[in-house]
Amino acid sequence: DTAVSQTPKYLVTQMGNDKSIKCEQNLGHDTMYWYKQDSKKFLKIMFSYNNKELIINETVPNRFSPKSPDKAHLNLHINSLELGDSAVYFCASSQAGGQGVYFGAGTRLSVL
Amino acid sequence: AQSVAQPEDQVNVAEGNPLTVKCTYSVSGNPYLFWYVQYPNRGLQFLLKYITGDNLVKGSYGFEAEFNKSQTSFHLKKPSALVSDSALYFCAVRDAGFNKFYFGSGTKLNVKP
After folding, report:
1. What does the pLDDT look like over A2-24, one tens digit per residue?
2. What angle do CA A91, B21, B33 make, to 5 degrees?
3. Which residues of B touch A (CB under 8 A)?
4. With b meaning 16 or more CB within 10 Å and e meaning fewer, what string describes B39-70?
5. Residue A98: pLDDT band by 50, 70, 90 thresholds?
6. Looking at CA atoms only, how far is residue B53 from chain A in angstroms?
């Protein structure tokens, strides 16, 4: 069983479109994240949710809207896609305490 | 604020030789430190962590890391590199108060046969 799964794996779309990425974790973790990895492989946190509540929003444009229907799911909706949104988006989860963070396989978004 | 720095964009090493990938950290309070590896077109995979205890931490695939409080470093090491170790390596620190992870900029490890 995949611990953190996200869909789709690839997303190719035109500028101005709206798209969503879904994420689910079966680890029983309380905290979920969205990270963006740019073309230089730099990994930046976008959002963090703890038990369905938003706790971190790292100055991400409001075209990006996360939604957490329950603590096992964290979806990301992006409105009016721009060329600069092209990146790999990783979903991740963690639990309180000294544990690490577990990543999904990533969604490669290409905006044309 | 918590942060980690990886001073090398790339490390080249011959197969069979020892390897070191460097990481320094800046934290307030006790550091929770991690190393992750990313293979092409894959997500990040956990390698090892330091929370407390022995300064030498052993992890997956024969990797280990040495926590040095006086130098605020957490370098990743392996005694004998394999070609299959070639990947992107990330150091990370956890802000326990916010359950938030800060990642370094990544170091590309190239192991040549």
Report:
1. 699 999 999 999 999 999 999 99
2. 50
3. 32, 34, 36, 38, 41-46, 49, 51-52, 88, 90, 92, 94, 96, 98-103, 105-106, 108
4. eeeebbbbbbbbbeeeeebebeeebbbbbeee
5. low
6. 13
Cβ of A98 within 8 Å of Cβ of B32? The answer is: yes
A49 contacts A66 by C-beta, under 8 angstroms: yes
Helices (H) and strands (E) in chain B, counts: 0, 12
Q: Tens digit of pLDDT for each residue in B15-74?
A: 999 999 999 999 888 888 999 999 988 889 999 999 888 899 999 999 999 999 999 999
- Which pLDDT tens digit goes with each residue over A42-93? 899 999 998 888 887 777 899 999 999 999 999 999 999 999 999 999 999 9
Tokens at B33, concatenated = 């430190």
Q: Please name the member of A33, A43, A100 whose beta carbon is closest to the beta carbon of B46.
A: A100
Residue identified by tokens 């690839």 is A10
Structure tokens at A84: 């600069």
Contact A55 B98 (CB under 8 A): yes
